[in-house]
Design goal:
21 strands; Immunoglobulin-like; about 25% strand; single chain; ten-stranded mixed beta sheet
């Protein structure tokens, strides 16, 4: 049986090498008026002259292998979903997580305690001085986040979850508050603002307790049947805002990982990776402070980049190629839910993919139609739900992700492209399909000549469109 399988694989390789590609290209197109439309197939042609091409897919120039796509489980998303009848709710969840249709999400994020899209502030242990974590609990999560995650796991039992805290328990912080910036949405005073430096108390008993806190979180979730495969131990350590957050310096993060968190996870056999993430700082020196130290790097499996961190991706990938790389939160937008936001999101995906990330995370998968957080910022989502009318809207950002994640499955390899036309990404799937994703941001149709390996084809992209071409 094994020999037959090997012969079959060799036959497939022979066919691909000799014939190049199938003779036709399948095309799916989305515009604002008509989304996810299957267009007429396009014929591939042999290249017979020295034609100048707008896009060239270099099929022999393989880059990073893609791990997958996902978003974040937030409390306000589950609240919006619960306003729907059960049948409609299931339909929305299936569109995100079914491995055979929709977005096919396979890696997702969750907060540890509150973030800006939680109902209110909370942590998993607000008992001051409880260094032994006797009062640690996930009772609130059992009623909100865990049902949300398990609803997704019904369609994707192998769903990989990674988790990050926005803030540790308030008693572990220098100003004893979940935020570091005063605002009308919190009760923090200017006198207790933390504008720079370490907001986490840098003392042994606090750092040791926090490592225990994160270890207990992973164990508690595993006991609930949820695979938390990685901990990214601080969301945006360089942020200054009114919602839950906590600032850390690079030196403090280095020491926390090497002295406390790493040894704790190893000694207690905690079944989760540790990532240096989610870093919102583009200064490569921040990454070097942590990653250049062998005693730190031995505990780290990957690096996560967010917002300003985008400027460091290429250099970090070059310096530390052995570490996995993730874009941890796509820019949130301002609650516009429009086509322009989706075009911008494609630009961000292309930026990060071209710099070598292996997975890309959306932020709020689902929100009500206002998009407003508990702390007053309206942001975008891929699906919105009107709590009054129960209308479900799949936004343009749902579709730009679908044009990628539906086709570019885990294990796909990014291919290098070149040419005058910039808005394009190319991949080869584990099955050997070439996937070309391109958008047209113009108000007019755009005609392109495209070369793929030794073949070529012509296509005219409709104005303001997202397109996936499969061969």
């Amino acid at each position: 049986m094994k020999n037959k399988r090997v012969l079959l694989e060799l036959a497939i390789i022979f066919i691909v090498v000799v014939n190049g590609f199938s003779q036709n290209i399948n095309w799916v197109c989305s515009t604002e008026q008509n989304k996810w439309i299957k267009k007429d197939s396009i014929k591939l042609n042999d290249i017979k002259d020295a034609t100048q091409f707008d896009i060239e897919v270099l099929t022999d120039h393989k880059q990073q292998t893609m791990d997958g796509w996902g978003g974040c489980f937030n409390e306000l998303g589950w609240q919006a979903l619960l306003t729907l009848p059960v049948k409609e709710r299931e339909k929305v969840i299936k569109e995100f997580f079914d491995p055979n249709e929709g977005l096919k999400y396979n890696i997702c994020r969750m907060p540890i305690g509150a973030n800006d899209y939680s109902y209110t502030w909370y942590s998993l242990n607000e008992t001051d001085g409880d260094f032994g974590m006797k009062d640690f609990n996930i009772e609130r999560d059992k009623n909100i986040l865990i049902p949300y995650i398990k609803a997704a796991m019904k369609y994707r039992p192998d769903l990989k979850i990674w988790a990050s805290p926005w803030s540790p328990p308030t008693w572990m912080k220098t100003n004893k508050h979940y935020a570091n910036k005063p605002d009308s949405y919190n009760d923090l005073t200017e006198a207790n603002a933390v504008k720079s430096g370490d907001q986490f108390i840098q003392k042994k008993e606090y750092l040791s307790a926090y490592a225990l806190y994160l270890a207990k979180f992973v164990t508690a979730y595993h006991n609930q049947g949820i695979n938390v495969y990685a901990i990214h131990f601080q969301n945006e350590p360089y942020t200054y805002n009114q919602w839950p957050n906590c600032s850390w310096t690079a030196h403090a993060m280095r020491d926390f990982i090497s002295i406390y968190l790493g040894p704790k996870f190893v000694n207690d056999k905690i079944p989760a990776q540790i990532w240096f993430s989610t870093i919102n700082n583009g200064n490569v020196a921040v990454f070097d402070t942590v990653l250049s130290q062998p005693e730190v790097r031995k505990y780290i499996s990957g690096v996560g980049f967010q917002y300003e961190g985008r400027n460091a991706v290429a250099e970090v990938a070059k310096k530390y190629p052995e570490l996995n790389r993730m874009q941890t939160e796509t820019p949130c937008g301002d609650g516009t839910f429009d086509w322009k936001a989706a075009e911008s999101t494609f630009g961000n995906i292309k930026w990060y993919a071209d710099k070598g990330v292996r997975s890309y995370m959306y932020w709020n998968m689902i929100l009500d139609n206002t998009g407003e957080s508990t702390w007053g910022w309206r942001q975008n989502a891929q699906v919105t739900i009107d709590k009054i009318t129960k209308k479900v809207t799949y936004t343009p950002e749902f579709y730009i992700f679908k044009h990628l994640s539906y086709f570019v499955t885990p294990g796909s390899v990014k291919l290098e492209t070149k040419g005058r036309y910039y808005d394009v990404l190319a991949f080869v799937t584990p099955e050997g399909k070439i996937i070309l994703v391109t958008i047209n941001t113009s108000d007019k149709p755009t005609s392109l000549k495209i070369k793929v390996g030794s073949k070529s084809f012509d296509v005219t992209l409709p104005q303001k469109s997202f397109n996936t071409l499969t061969m």
